[in-house]
Predict the structure.
Amino acid sequence: AQRVTQPEKLLSVFKGAPVELKCNYSYSGSPELFWYVQYSRQRLQLLLRHISRESIKGFTADLNKGETSFHLKKPFAQEEDSAMYYCALSGGGGSEKLVFGKGTKLTVNP
Amino acid sequence: GAVVSQHPSWVICKSGTSVKIECRSLDFQATTMFWYRQFPKQSLMLMATSNEGSKATYEQGVEKDKFLINHASLTLSTLTVTSAHPEDSSFYICSARDLGQGPFFGQGTRLTVV
């Protein structure tokens, strides 16, 4: 079974501080991991896919298969990063379902 | 990124009636679309996987006779909430995937059953 755990419901940091949003997963095969962001009153937006290894808006995430983690990091948080962040897992391929973690609400204080 | 559009964005219906929500992939073909439900301040709960030209696959606990899903073309999937009740009031979100990109999400549909 696919399972995604985001242990922190809320995370608050000051502007300019580093931020790490934790995500752990459980899946027996080779997963695809994603991070989505949802700003207030907006739709979910794809932030990162582990296979693309991109850096979007200064965020990075590395898949650690040994620790079954896909933590999202940014070295210097900005106020506009305040949003809900969801980690998600797919079993791979084009049609596998995407299962979400419960989300972490990030607040970046001035 | 690719665009997924839902219609309507919000709908109010009377208890006992049915309401249909459309999900369209505007600039790509999606053989698979997914329907989610999101309660206030909660995460997305997958309801079903919709495959073009075949029956949808429902998650455990989701009533297939209540939430009818049709995926008639590569760009359109519909979710019909039948005999709606107030407890069906929620935010319904669809997503679609293009091989190599996404999944991309629609803006969601706020359903209120009165």
About this structure: Chain A has a mean pLDDT of 90. DSSP finds no helices and eleven strands in chain A. The radius of gyration of chain A is 13 Å.
